[in-house]
Amino acid sequence: MRSAAKSIRCVFVALISLALVACSNGTPAASDVGITKDAILIGGTDPLSGPAAAYGTIAKSADAYFHYVNDNGAVNGRQITYKYLDDGYNPAQTVPLTKQLVEQDQVFLMFAGLGTQPQTSVRDYLNGKKVPQVFVATGATTFSAEFEKYPYTFGWQPVYQGESLIYAQYILKNTPNAKIGVIYQNDDYGQDYLDGLTKGLGAKAAEMIVDKESNDVGAPDLNSQILKLKNSGADTFFVFETPSPAIKALVSAFQNTPEFSCTSRSWASTTRTASLKMRSISTAWPRRTAWSMCSKKPVRTSPARRSWISWVR
């Protein structure tokens, strides 16, 4: 919780800095629209519907926090208006919605747009317009690898390849004879994780990864892929998916593989089921609403965090 609160505070430090630059008396920044003496208009695209709708709570929680900030002095007196639109996790929708926010609504910046392919689909456009693309909600390796090429794009998540490299190191250290089966989303998101795992395993990758199965994000079920992984003899199961297909993969695995356990690597927690033969590592992050995060159970937290919780309740 404390690390999450610290991340949110960092967002606002950066946001304030950008606002001050845009409103300075010196040479105006290219993206100085969307700011007045008493308001800041920011935009975003997020999957409020569709196969990645579970991530919609991110934008809703951010909006709740912006309201909290507005109720507590705002940003140097400027009220934040956060206009976020539903792109359904579909780049074909992300592009026109982003252009609407920039050209019609004239937002100051785009904040926390979610999805690897949705956000790469508008990166050239936003940088061409010199509109900041701030705190992109994806850990795609490209957002850190190409920061010089895209100076108006700011990522913040640990990169997916770096994450799966750590998984590979863990496997090599603790279960070096593992037979790995991978199910991954058939897009840049899933491929990024798979590339990191393969690099991390190094020379042993070809031997240890006994099967790889891909799927579209909107696939109705993943039974055929899971059965292929089961029949491959895999005893270690990697799930490189967003929430909806990850749930389908895990449900199918439990149904088709009696001796199965799940290690869920998530933002919130890690759960383990011991004494079963098949292990799973899932990269889908369960998201929780601002309300459900505010448990009444006593926790060690900062004064700022306690203030936020009090305001939400």
Counted by DSSP, the helix tally is 12
Strand content: 15-25%
Structural class: alpha/beta
From the coordinates shown, what is the CATH architecture of the largest domain? 3-Layer(aba) Sandwich
The percentage helix is: 40-55%
Mean pLDDT over the residues: 78
CATH homology group of the largest domain: Response regulator
Distance between the termini: 17 Å
- The level-1 CATH class of the largest domain: Alpha Beta
Number of domains as seen in the coordinates: 2
Q: For the largest beta sheet, what order do the strands appear in spatially?
A: 7-6-8-11-9-10
Element order, helices and strands? HEHEHEHEHEHEHHEHEHEEEHH
**Bulk shape:** elongated
Low-confidence stretches: 1-6, 22-31, 258-280, 282-299
- In angstroms, what is the radius of gyration? 21 Å
CATH topology of the largest domain: Rossmann fold
DSSP summary, beta strand count: 11
Q: Major beta sheet, specifics? A: 6 strands, mixed
Question: Which SSEs are present, and which pair or pack?
Answer:
Blueprint: H1 2-22, E1 39-46, H2 56-71, E2 79-86, H3 91-104, E3 109-111, H4 116-129, E4 133-136, H5 142-145, E5 153-155, H6 160-174, E6 180-185, H7 188-201, H8 205-208, E7 209-215, H9 223-231, E8 236-240, H10 243-256, E9 263-265, E10 270-271, E11 279-282, H11 290-293, H12 303-312
Parallel strand pairs: 1-2, 1-3, 3-4, 4-5, 6-7, 6-8, 8-11, 9-11
Antiparallel strand pairs: 9-10
Helix pairs in contact: 3-4, 6-7, 9-10
